[in-house]
Amino acid sequence: MSASSTSAPNPAPTLADVRRRNESVLLPPPATQLHPAFGSSLRHRRHSSHSSHSSHSSHSSHSSYAARHPDRVPQKAVSPNNAFLSVVSLLGLILVYTLVGVWLFINGFLLSRHELQGWNQCSTPALPHWSLPIPPQSSDDASLLNWAHTALHPVTGNGECILPPTHAKAVVLIIDALRYDFIAPPPPPLTNATRGAPVRSEWQPNPYYHNVLSLPAQLTETHAISASADSPGPASFLAHFTADPPTTTLQRLKGLTTGTLPTFVEAGANFGSAGTRVGQINEDNWIAQFKRSILSPDLGSDLGEPDLNSSAGLVFAGDDTWNTVLPHLFDSNTTWTYDSFNVEDLDTVDRGVESKLLPFLQTHHPDRVAGVHDSWRLLVGHTLGVDHVGHRFGASHPKMKLKLQEMQDLLRNITDAVDQETLVVVMGDHGMDERGDHGGDAELEVGAGIWVYSKRSFGYPGRNKQLQMHPAEYISTPQVEAVLPSRIPFSALPSPPYSSAGHRSIPQIDLVPTISILLGLPVPYNSLGSIIPDLFAHPDTLLRALRITSTQMRTYLNAYATKSPDFAAFQPEFDALWLNAVRADAQLARLVHASGDATTQAEVEEAMRSAAQAYHAFNRISLARAREVWAQFDMVGIVLGLIVLLGALAVAWVVRDGAINGLIGVLPAAATTEQDPASTVLTQVVRRTTTTQELHAVVWRSISRPALVGAAIGAVLHGSVLLPLPAVLVSIVKPLTLVDSILVGASIASQLWLLASHLARTLSRSSECQGGSCGPATSRLLDSAGWILLLMHAALFASNSLLVFEDRFVLLALASLLLVRGVLLVGASPTTHLRLRSGLLTLLALVLVRLAAVPRVCREEQAANCESTFFASTSTTGAALNSPYTIALAYALAYALPSVVATFLKQSKSFVGIAPRMFTWVWRPTLMIGAGHWALDYAVPLDAIQRSGWANRLEWIKHWMVKLDFVVLALALVFWIFAPLCLEIRTQTVRAQQEANEAEKQKVTILGYANSLGSSFLLLVGVAVSLVWVVTQPSGQVALAVGWVAASVCVELTDAERDVVILFRQRIAAEQAAAHRQDQPESSVAATVKAPHLTSGALMSLLHLCYLLFFSTGHQSTLASIQWRVAFVSSPTLTYPSSPLLVMLNSFGALTVLPCLLTVLAVLWNTTPLPRGSGRRMPLPQHLLSALTTLAIFNTFLLLTSAALSALLFRRHLMLFKVWTPRVLLAVVASVGGQLAGLVSATAAWHLANKVNAIFGSEFA
Fold it and tell me: Which CATH number fits domain 141-187+205-291+308-632: 3.10.20.740, 3.40.720.10, 3.30.70.1070, 2.60.40.10?
């Protein structure tokens, strides 16, 4: 007996039937024309000699017989549409509840920062010298705060809001993904402190990016800012430039221009485009302030608001993301933008920036035009070559060295051409990891670099040599260093050989107030940054700049407090810090205004430093608290979302139990019988549902009216918030919109009514077993194992230390579950052959699962406990991201995989009909095209290809191969919809002994009949696997191929487990019949046995296998693992909507599409159609519903636990946005995407059921 050939979802066959499952089904020769679903090849095999009558006479004869004997003619088979429509409707109900819960929760949990639309409108002119106002007589808190408001504030008093500009022009160059160590100076020579002997270090510079872009380090060494300089001169400042996550370009540009902190959800706006207003800056920013100052130089004039669309000498060239962020801000005739997402193009943007900006700087440039290139005030360039090399090849690649050398030449041209009036700022918007990726908060991703250069300098200290001190140390305090240290370690440049004190580091948002003050501009209204003290060496200038920045930040925090309670918990701390700063400033004012010689210069210097430290502490701690808060949580939305999700989980459990055991409801006393539909009794009685139609009717009656009533109540409550309602009710309803109120009311009311009617009875039933129809103990144990594993998986979310190793847990859990399944199956199998086969299948599954887990991408938190194997080595070898050996292996597997999967069909003689054609002409070519794409992707950058001149042509071929792949798959899907089942009729002549004569007879064999549903659905799964394959990189393709074979083995194991349950129930039924002395044939006893549903253990195996494929295809629940480069597999440029869809398919295809398809495949596998006249209906819709709802329960439970723990327990945890928030989003995608895929999969099964119904007359319950 072969376990692969059992028709588990049908009434159980006898043992003899199970043993004959691999034998073909014999039917008499067809007397009528074959249905098109058999295929044209079957028609050609008919022999005209089978009938002695013409088709006309045959039809007439049949019609007259039907007229004479209507009771003897089989009725037309009942359509399966109502049964499957009920399945789809119930799955859709669960999806709707899930969507409502997710909508409410996400709106409350994914934080949103209030954008204040105010502008810092400074009307006070800049003064070269400014003195503190006379301090108050009293030192009490009220007097000090009143003095700050009436004397220090620039609006209500005589305070400053701008300083005289140090530079009239600026050149700002953003080198995308410029990591700090790309421009850092080489390490100083280390010597032993006692003997002067050199100290050895194991660290070696990377030849591809260390000391290549060396100009910033060279000029910094020559013209470093000196705390004891006596006169102005060239100055250079270089530092580590810490980016706030998410480290995507659009969010970083917001921070670099407005000084604000991004929110987690803003990462999705990185795919925004100009004209959509997605990602557009609506807040005050330093570039807009610069343009205002140019167009309206007289701050106190009454000329009105300047027209920001006018030309002001603002020039831009580079990344077109700036068009999204700041549309129409630069002069239209001097703005040149280039596609930012074409990672295949390493040079176009960089060449454009160089060719467009250098004519403005170089007076003898051949493209310079008088009147066009000589009236600029701001040049902004944004190159992309470094970032694209990283995405394309990784950081350690020869092309990175070439690109950094190009940037070296560009910087040298800029620094040679600028004059003393020009400020030069060169920076990275973010860093990159060794694979060239970014987006998260890993050390290398946030570790950008900044270089500021001026031929005039930024001023000089001008104080006594005895008081000389580095500006960063001058204003530093232990309190501030504990919150935001000015020096940090950097693993790419370790100590030794670098100093143990760490690397000078500043937050990126500090650029905003710094460049604003240097250019004589007001600090943008929403800025949370402080100045870079290294650029304000004179203590008086430093204090004035700090006072301006702190006053602006205090104004912003007070305005924000009126809009949101986000900072309410920190308000006392803010007030205390501000009061300390004002008190220190007042003490300085007393010393400055004191008469007589009692006050020494040292006291003034000390008071000046104390005031600077106090203002700096206010700035830094305010920033730290803002980072902690990030933005606001809406607890009403969070709690209501969790309640609806909990209700969705309970409803799914009730529907699942109804599919297995039925629900109690008011139904017709007798269901329509197959023998005589007219015998239906219309009397309504309370009984258990027996079909999906009845289940749908009971559920719909339970939710329809309560949903309407709940929606009405929600709408009424929303409109009654102004009435004297209880405070608790108002606090719940007020934050909700009208739509939210209606959705909450309808969802919760309908859920509660359904659960009140059926949940208690559902929970009281421990299983589907009724009396002797129970399965063996091993089957019940396996079912329990699935739920236990689900609880263990959910328990991971309670600890960030465990959650970061989720990939290893999935591997361990899956291997353990497969081992348990194998042991139980071997023990329960009735024959030696089955035990041997089950053991071999289990062993094969364990080996395949372990092989599939070999490709791996490590999270930053896994550190030394993980070694990434997904990409090729990127240490110092210069290897590409994908290994040629892996590419070759993926190509070989693409050829072999269809043949391997075909062996599973051949076991049940189902590799017939259209199956060989689909495998040969669709599946294998598309898989090989998908693997060939990455082979060309590897070959195009090779020096030999580049020199041959074939690079562009191969690049074109590479993209069109993928387009061809998609076209073939689309045509294959259309073909599958209209194609026949995987059936084939074979006719052979046999000799039969009739009385004394030997006669020849025709025997017709239908091959593939026993697995006609499963084999046909397998073709659809093959199309889906091919679709995921083409957007998966080579290591992932290897894992996907191995995982697909492992999935086929798991389906075979599931079928074998159903065989065991069937045989067990047959034996119990036969024993019960014998005990009651009922002389029934074996086949009659078998017909009364209830077919088993898939166990939770079998379904959990498939789900965890798909989770394993998610991790093995190069993903983790982190933003950094998103493989952005797959957005360009079909096009060298960003294309909507295909590029985002390709990234989504690559990231989530294995976790959303495959689980549902494999679940339905397991249900349909070896499901033998019941022909017309059998007197029974196939319970296939019920089995599909129970399996898909079980899968929905798994995903929803993981979503609910991760969401509840994140929002209720860990919402203020330090690792919330690094660990839990990405996992919650992954759970949302898995749950919602999985349920959508479940609807599609159920619809596909419905389509196949219609084909079976049309051919064999099978009916479905």
Answer: 3.40.720.10
